Amino acid sequence: MTTDPLRQFAAWLSEAEAAGVPLATAFALATAEPGGTPSVRMLLLHGFDVDGLRFYTNRDSRKGRELAANPRAAAVFHWAPLDRQVRLAGTVTPLPDEASTAYWATRPRGSQLAAWASHQGAELDSKATLDGRVAELASRYQGGEVPLPPFWGGYLLTPDIIEFWESRPDRLHHRVEFRRSGSDWRGRLLQP
Fold it and tell me: What is the pLDDT of residues 165-186, one digit of tens each?
């Protein structure tokens, strides 16, 4: 185990991808309403570096509203075939529009149209309504680029806690937790 948790995370993610773990970049993101009611959902990681983890979503969605009101979140990556998981917790900030626009340009056209069409998490009267919105948007942007919606963008989760967990026989799991201390990380072993 390295003393740099972000480098360790990069190594474990690479090992999960090399091992063929399906959707190795999938993670559960937990947020909470101002009153404390939690919610969790699966997302895909779209980049990380020393600043943290990047993901993109509809900012008017439940997670977007919760992050606007309470900009802290927790995440967990679970790679069952490797008997490993990584838990992270920290502050979440919106990414600049330039970063969101750059990522948006890499999305498949169908995903772009779906992002425009969906009022993510709102009640839907019928699938036909959603399909109709997608068809209308496809017609509107036919032959041209689909612009970045004003309600859609990226976030950066800057962790201040990262825990690595590996399964061991007899439930004597190996756990190492890192806590940010200024610009450094302090690591410690945890009991299983």
Answer: 999 999 989 999 999 998 899 9
By CB neighbour count within 10 A (0-12 exposed, 13-18 middle, 19+ buried), where does 178 fall?
A: buried
3-class secondary-structure state, position 188: strand
The answer to whether 171 is a known catalytic residue is: yes
Q: What is the DSSP code string of 4-29? A: -HHHHHHHHHHHHHHTT-TTTTEEEE
- How many whole angstroms separate alpha carbon 107 and alpha carbon 105? 6
The domains found in the chain, sorted by start residue, are 5-105+153-190 (2.30.110.10), 106-144 (no CATH)
- Catalytic-labelled residue, pool 171, 175, 180, 188: 171
Q: Model pTM?
A: 0.92
